[in-house]
Amino acid sequence: MGKFINGWLMITLCYFTVFLMATTLYGLITGLPIDRYRIYSGTYLGILLIIVPYFLTGIYARMFFSHPVKSAFWLSVVPVVCEKVLIYFIGAVLLAAGGDGDTSGVTVMNFIEAEAAPYFTPVYVILGFLSIPFSMWIASRKKVSVQSM
């Protein structure tokens, strides 16, 4: 169980590191805040947050577990589901509390995308579940040794 907890901590730290680095780089490259032109910033952030942490999850599962594919599934499914539920819950609570002024006719997803997380769109939620088989695929890859080259 300790390996799973370490894996989930690794995914969480990687997720936040990628998020902070990507938002900083986006601002440096474009000169714009992350919430401006959300179609571009959201796509940029979403792709990085779907790929990078779960790529490392597959590598972690391959290195530390005797059944890496099954372990990669459990290492991935918990953070994928928890992240989406937690962001949606926080957005729903903030919207119910009054949000950022007039919130009539604003859905929770629109509020989250506009105010907090420009990458959190229905496409991100759906494609985020593809990171589970992605990490399983990475975990199933054969180790390449220097001697075999």
Describe the protein.
- Keywords: Membrane, Transmembrane, Transmembrane helix.
- The chain crosses the membrane at residues 7-29, 41-61, 73-99, 119-139.
- The chain has 149 residues and is mostly helical.
- It has one domain.
- It has six helices and no strands.
- The longest helix is centred in the first third of the chain and has 29 residues, at 2-30.
- The termini are far apart.
Over all CA atoms, what is the radius of gyration?
18 Å
H/I helix tally: 6
Element pattern in H and E: HHHHHH
Major sheet description: none
Beta strands, count: 0
| Count of structural domains | 1
Average pLDDT works out at 87
How much of the residues is beta strand, in percent?
under 5%
Helix and strand content put the structural class at mainly alpha
Overall outline: globular
Q: What is the helix content?
A: over 70%
Residue ranges: pLDDT <50 for 5 or more in a row? none
Task: Give a short overview.
This protein has 149 residues and is mainly alpha-helical.
Question: Characteristics of this structure?
Answer:
149 residues, mainly alpha, single chain, globular
Strand and helix layout:
Layout: H1 2-30, H2 38-64, H3 68-96, H4 108-115, H5 122-128, H6 131-140
Helix pairs in contact: 1-2, 1-3, 2-3, 2-6, 3-4, 3-6
